[in-house]
Amino acid sequence: xxxxxxxxxxxxxxxxxxxxxxxxxxxxxxxxxxxxxxxxxxxxxxxxxxxxxxxxxxxxxxxxxxxxxxxxxxxxxxxxxxxxxxxxxxxxxxxxxxxxxxxxxxxxxxxxxxxxxxxxxxxxxxxxxxxxxxxxxxxxxxxxxxxxxxxxxxxxxxxxxxxxxxxxxxxxxxxxxxxxxxxxxxxxxxxxxxxxxxxxxxxxxxxxxxxxxxxxxxxxxxxxxxxxxxxxxxxxxxxxxxxxxxxxxxxxxxxxxxxxxxxxxxxxxxxxxxxxxxxxxxxxxxxxxxxxxxxxxxxxxxxxxxxxxxxxxxxxxxxxxxxxxxxxxxxxxxxxxxxxxxxxxxxxxxxxxxxxxxxxxxxxxxxxxxxxxxxxxxxxxxxxxxxxxxxxxxxxxxxxxxxxxxxxxxxxxxxxxxxxxxxxxxxxxxxxxxxx
Amino acid sequence: xxxxxxxxxxxxxxxxxxxxxxxxxxxxxxxxxxxxxxxxxxxxxxxxxxxxxxxxxxxxxxxxxxxxxxxxxxxxxxxxxxxxxxxxxxxxxxxxxxxxxxxxxxxxxxxxxxxxxxxxxxxxxxxxxxxxxxxxxxxxxxxxxxxxxxxxxxxxxxxxxxxxxxxxxxxxxxxxxxxxxxxxxxxxxxxxxxxxxxxxxxxxx
Lengths: 436, 205
Ligand SMILES: Cc1cc2nc3c(=O)[nH]c(=O)nc-3n(C[C@H](O)[C@H](O)[C@H](O)COP(=O)(O)OP(=O)(O)OC[C@H]3O[C@@H](n4cnc5c(N)ncnc54)[C@H](O)[C@@H]3O)c2cc1C
Prior knowledge:
- The complex is a heterodimer of chains A (436) and B (205).
- With 436 residues, chain A is of the alpha/beta class.
- Chain A has 3 domains: 1-21 and 369-431, Flavocytochrome C Sulfide Dehydrogenase, Chain A Domain 3; 23-67 and 107-138 and 297-366, FAD/NAD(P)-binding domain; 143-290, 3-Layer(bba) Sandwich (FAD/NAD(P)-binding domain), CATH 3.50.50.60.
- Chain A is 31% helix and 25% strand.
- Chain A is built from 10 helices and 24 strands.
- Chain A has helices at 3-24, 44-56, 77-83, 96-100, 165-176, 197-212, 230-241, 298-302, 342-360, 413-435; strands at 36-40, 61-65, 71-72, 92-93, 104-106, 110-114, 119-122, 127-129, 132-135, 139-142, 182-186, 217-221, 252-255, 266-270, 275-278, 282-284, 287-290, 293-296, 311-312, 326-328, 333-334, 370-379, 382-392, 399-406.
- In chain A, the strands form 8 sheets. Chain A has a 5-stranded parallel β-sheet, covered by helices on one side. Chain A has a 4-stranded parallel β-sheet with strand order 13-12-11-17.
- In chain A, β23 (382-392) and β24 (399-406) form a beta hairpin.
- Chain A starts with a helix and ends with a helix.
- Residues 1-32 of chain A have low confidence and may be disordered.
- Chain B is mainly alpha-helical and 205 residues long.
- Chain B has 2 domains: 11-107, Cytochrome c-like domain (Cytochrome Bc1 Complex, Chain D, domain 2); 120-203, Cytochrome c-like domain (Cytochrome Bc1 Complex, Chain D, domain 2).
- Chain A binds chain B through residues 52, 316, 343, 346-347, 350-351, 354, 366-371, 373, 385, 387-394, 400, 402-405, 407, 415, 418-419, 421-422, 424-426, 428-430, 432-433, 436, and chain B through 22, 28-36, 39-40, 42-50, 54-59, 85-86, 89-94, 156, 158, 162.
- The complex binds flavin-adenine dinucleotide.
- The site of flavin-adenine dinucleotide has 37 residues of chain A, from α2, α3, α9 and β22.
């Protein structure tokens, strides 16, 4: 960017900011206020933010830093890859679309964000200046929650909670498993990314077994007493896979943990012996899937953006309440009221992009609007959903649901079949909205 | 447009007597209102595609539909007069002012005809039926939306099919005249006639 433009935009934003100072408090008159935005993480939140910044104001210089050349979506990974065997390419997306929108894409890994000097450092040795930074690093695992199972062990036992090689490995292990085997899954405690995800996965694995390995079982050792879309999943499991609550009959067996007990909380994992010890006892499996407890991605901690496990933010803008001019979106943010989902990350990214564009123009942040939807597919012709529309509470304390809800439990076959079709549409449209 | 007015009256009446009470602003927690049409519309993109241009295979494109049609549909979804899998849950989150803004935004976008498969052997018969029974209000082969009818040509087939099924079962209200034409066509050609129509609409890409 030339110095001339820098100075001009400085004067413009300075003027506007002064005018608005009464409303927004101390305006940002950062030295040499330019229009450089760096987005850290090119996943659901980050890629959306980069694209929507360019849509909001093409003169903003947007750089996206992401280590991988292909992003594999977690969403539909259960359906397309793990259950459906369509291969990993069915969930892969590249960055050419973003480049066409004028986003500069740098494949590197961010190691530090200095909020004082407004500089980003990378593993590749680069130092990059920013005026505003948007961080969307997703999640990291709390390995201490699964004694015996750690990052090294994830080379043989999948979590498949970050899509890609993990997802492909889990599918391969299921293919190699003998009929009559057990798929042993340990879902995480709350809060975690995609609350219905483990239960959709259980259904998808059961669907694969039903077709190819009908003597096999899906055993879930859950540290929780209930879970997202509880009624709808139990209904689907029993209709499709003979599930009976509280019984070991049927293809899917779910063992929960009542409040105050430690029944199905992990005590220890024996990686070589493929078994999980819980407060209740020990279970062996043929293919294991362990999903540890979660926290914000590493860089959020390195940059001092966290309080507890997640990053506190101003819910109107997603600006960090700890560091000015850094915005945190997606799973890593403590977006009070919104779930940790792809739809929510996409929605948050648009709110943040609009707020950043406004801030660079010296304007007040616009009034936000948010939506979340999450489709689940339990089997062929069997889809259901949860959806919600949200507004910011007037005092800014929470993103408040104003409408929404679940697919009704008495939904007809026709509705369930339509919802499956709409779930595939959702995938097409949201991935195009993010990467196209 | 007499029938249009009838539709609208019907929907509005349904809204007034609707039992679902979201619009009870009194009990609702106070939230920040006044989001722009763009900000509201951006939240629809995950399902309907950026600017309402859907990549299918089912969810309809809403960019480039008529303003009055979008308002009618949103109100109908909200009241429950128009059956839906998910829009009922979503539409309840918007007041009349916001629905108006959304309608202005999406009616100002370009309609993108769906790239979808169709049975080429049925197109000619579908075209014939359309011209005889539907063209009067859905002009230019179902492209024209000047009569606030919703778009037939180039819309995603699974959605149009569901709309027709909802009309035929009586679950979705339609104008008296359209009903007469639909019944006539069905009496003459059965479900096959609708399949042919679908092929004709899908063939316009
Ligand atoms: C099995 C499963 C199913 C799911 N299904 C659904 C669904 O149906 N619907 C739905 O809405 N959501 C679903 N989700 C949730 C959804 O995937 C996440 O909520 C969403 O991806 C969050 O977006 P994000 O941007 O926060 O993180 P991510 O999408 O994970 O993106 C983070 C990106 O940041 C990059 N990154 C991390 N650290 C750095 C660094 N230091 N420097 C540079 N780059 C970095 C990573 O490489 C990654 O590309 C599902 C999740 C799972 C696991």
